[in-house]
Amino acid sequence: MENLNDINREEQAYYENVPQQNPFHLSVVTESTVLTLQDHFDMMIQAVRNGELDALSLYTISKEVKDIADKVNKDVQELAIEEAEKHTEKSFKYGNKLITKVEGRKMIDYSNIEEWRIAKDNLKEIEDKYKQVALSSLSTLDESTGEVLQRPIVTFSKSSISIKKC
Predict the structure, then answer these.
(1) d(Cα 15, Cα 21) in Å, to the nearest integer?
(2) 151 with 134: CB under 8 angstroms?
(3) What's the pTM value of the predicted model, to 2 decimals?
(4) Is 52 exposed, middle or buried (0-12, 13-18, 19+ CB in 10 A)?
């Protein structure tokens, strides 16, 4: 890892050369601020492992930090894209970061096509029929037709918890 003093000197030189168009330029989150935040979370993780802090406390704090960061990203994304569009290159260096512009992708919506809607409804019926087989511990027999049905593969997702402010 780079020496923190080297990073601070690089950032200081970079921000001294950035045109100061914004009166809040001094409040820019710098790489050393991010490293300090990472170091702080690393210490908290170690405290959880050592039994000095309970895992739910750290998990709820990190979730709240993530929610704040997600809101910031959502609120400034369009403006950041506009700013990136000013650069002619697809990828360009911005401070000590490499920014790559990615064009929007074509998406196709089939929901207005009747044939597709019918096929989707038929698939839902098939899934419902075989879901009963998967949930049944005994029979693979379709009681309405007498057909022996193949069991679908059942897997389990990773456990998780949900956190919401009350």
Answers:
(1) 12
(2) yes
(3) 0.59
(4) exposed
CB 148 within 8 A of CB 140: yes
Rounded to whole angstroms, the Cα distance separating 53 from 32 reads 25
Amino acid at 45: I
More confident residue, 5 or 83: 83
Span of 108-112, 136-140, 158-162 with lowest mean pLDDT: 136-140
Give CA–CA dist 50/40, Å, rounded.
15
The one-letter amino acid code at 100 reads T
Integer Cα distance of 140 and 111 in angstroms: 33
Tokens 């910031």, located at residue: 72
Please state the length of the chain: 166
